[in-house]
């Protein structure tokens, strides 16, 4: 049985694995933070609609800059 070791494929596979594991840790961390009742109370007082209205103009500006 012969194995053809191609090191460039191994590097990209490892990079993809590291990136996806980072995303998984971020989602897990956000879930832990948002499951805390104190944090939920603060988010309820702040209001998610206010956050969305504040963030949308910045997101539009970012997408316009990126398309240039």
Distance between the termini: 52 Å
Structural class: mainly alpha
Largest sheet: number of strands, sense, barrel closure? none
Principal-axes shape call: flat
Order of helices and strands: HHH
**From the alpha-carbon coordinates, what is the Rg to the nearest angstrom?**
20 Å
Number of separate strands = 0
What is the helix content? over 70%
The helix tally amounts to 3
* Overall tally of domains: 1
User: Which residue ranges are poorly predicted, with pLDDT under 50 across at least 5 consecutive positions?
Assistant: none
Task: Name the assembly state.
Answer: single chain
Fraction of residues in β-strands: under 5%
Look at the structure and give the mean pLDDT: 78
Characterise the protein shown here.
The termini are far apart. The protein is built from 3 helices and no strands. It is mostly helical and 68 residues long.
Entry keywords:
68 residues; mainly alpha; 3 helices; 85% helix
Nutshell version of this structure?
With 68 residues, the protein is mainly alpha-helical.
Task: Break the fold down into its secondary structure elements and pairings.
Layout: H1 7-34, H2 37-46, H3 48-67
